[in-house]
Amino acid sequence: MINATFRDEWFSNIQKNVLAGLTTSFALVPECIAFALVAQLNPLMGLYGAFIICAFTAIFGGRPGMISGAAGSMAVVIVALVAQHGVQYLLATVVLSGIIMALFGILRLGKLIRMVPYPVMLGFVNGLAIVIAMAQLEHFRQATPQGETWLQGTSLYVMGALVLLTMAIVYVLPRITKAVPPALVAILGVGVLSHFLQLPTRTLGDLAHIAGGLPALHWPTVPLDMATLHVIFPYAALMAMVGLLETLLTFNLTDEMTETRGQPNRECIALGASNVVSGLFGGMGGCAMIGQTMINLSSGGRSRLSGVTAGVMILLFILFLSPLIERIPLAALVGVMFVVAQQTFAWGSLRVLGKVPLQDALVIVAVTVITVLTDLALAVLCGIVIAALNFAWQHARDMRADIDDTGAGAGVRVYLPHGTLFFASTTHFLELFQAATDPARVILDCRHLHMADHSAIAAIEALYERYEKAGKHLQVTHLSPRNQALLQRAGVDVSVA
Q1: Cα–Cα distance, 278 to 281 (Å, whole number)
Q2: Which pLDDT score is estimated for 163?
Q3: 7, 191, 342, 450: most buried by Cβ count inside 10 Å?
Q4: What is the model's pTM?
């Protein structure tokens, strides 16, 4: 008997998941081709990478329903590498980045994604939604002898009309029937309409020809020495960081949308292994793709079957179906991606900007803007830094102390501090004490004080020395076992009761 979990992950609602995977594959093709061209690579490298990474992570990953492929965020990273050192160094970099990703999962570091605050998640989603929408504007440009120009006249009107028709189908069809994914109907419907009416519009074939053979196993022809490692390691580390960040953030979003819990460490290992395989078979590196994941989820894709279907369909496009796929109007795919961008953007975040604390609103806006202007990795890191600094500042301000001159007897002052003693709060903590005017005996009651780092140890030691210089005795009481062990391990000799 098939295990219930296995059945749910693979064979729940087979028809809907197969159709969702087919729909997603149509959206993967132009994106992967475009990303390959950005990186100055053969478009087939992007498609091979999409097939391998999408299918591999769907089979072995920790998040059914999430779609991975040759991602633009990683393509941008390796443009300079390809230009300076060539394709073989890129393939070696992809393999090394995959090893780093897999090690990240093996060391069980996927849980670190929990440290990403919710405002950073909102900024990530909003930024990528804007990036997805802006990327579609490139399809409204055409190459001319004078360079790239915007479409004009009939070409622009036809393109715009087909985009609007596609979006209308995607929005309206679910109100009529939910038996088939609206994006699939829109893509096929607009494609058939364009073909029979012979409309003058650009197709997928105008972007690149995708016919090819099976990917072949090929070890990157680069010298296996420290000089090569010196060249590829910085790029591999950056690719791994970007890929892991985008994957784990998309992972969290997928968890929320499906109301299920995945396995982040397993996903990291599968993603790393898929990148190693992709590099060895001549494909680009990749990670989770939020736009295609949204298409898959909104089309009903919840099982591993949807991701496997998407990956296998890309291979079939390359081997057998390229004449048909190349006839699909770019306008249909652009329309679908515009809808994805609209559905991905967290519109509710705009309404709460004036209601949440100012620092959280700042994080949302900052991550969104930085994602659009630079890249995801920098945006998320900046967001985490801003949130961490705000957290430290708020906790530092919460440090206070109650003073009791009667409870311990005459000539004794008791300080009862409340809060967390760490690097940001030590100055305020020391300002709470008046060694010059305090009586000869002072008690520091630590029952409500939590020591977090070495700065806390240094502050206690400095406080003790301050009273010692004033000729007064400081006694520390009610230290928790953890705090007492922290002081003893640091070799701080204070009078403890």
Answers
A1: 5
A2: 94
A3: 191
A4: 0.81
